[in-house]
Amino acid sequence: MLALRIEALRESLTRLGRFNPEVARARLRAQFHPAWMQHLVLGGERVGYFTVEPREGELRLHHLYLAPAAQGQGIGAWVIDKLKARGLPISLAALRESRANDFYRRHGFRAVEEQDFDIEYRWEPIA
Question: Which residues form the N-acetyltransferase domain (predicted)?
Fold first, then answer.
């Protein structure tokens, strides 16, 4: 999982001058709970994973990583659609200047807070 996370983030982190495998390992360890994880498999091969923390009245998407070769095939959109179908607000953070920001905005997430390195997003179901 760490290798996949690093592969998915390397380009963005390198562009920002923040690529550090040890920091990536520590962040994954701090936010990872096996019960919240789902593997993404395509053609018998794991191409990504995501973790969703159930919170009181909302979901927190901590990780959604796809191998670069699996990006742009609708897999991430499928994950977001499945989460939205639960009918709960969804929050997440995306690395500034990452292509993930465009992805989340296209899927109806709005920026609610900008931090030094991340942008916090939120999606609310239509009442």
Answer: 1-127
Convert the pLDDT of each residue in 72-122 to its tens digit.
999 999 999 999 999 999 999 998 878 889 999 999 999 999 998 889 999
Phi, psi torsion values for 4, nearest 5 degrees: -65, -45
Token pair in block for residue 5: 């996370």
Q: What is the pTM of this model?
A: 0.79
Rounded to whole angstroms, how far apart are CA atoms 118 and 114?
A: 6
Token pair of 102 as six digits: 């465009």
Q: b/e for 15-46, b at 16 or more Cβ within 10 A?
A: eeeeeeeeebeebbeeebeeebeeebeeeeee
Domains and CATH numbers, the chain: 2-123 (3.40.630.30)
| Residue 104 CB coordination number (10 Å) | 24
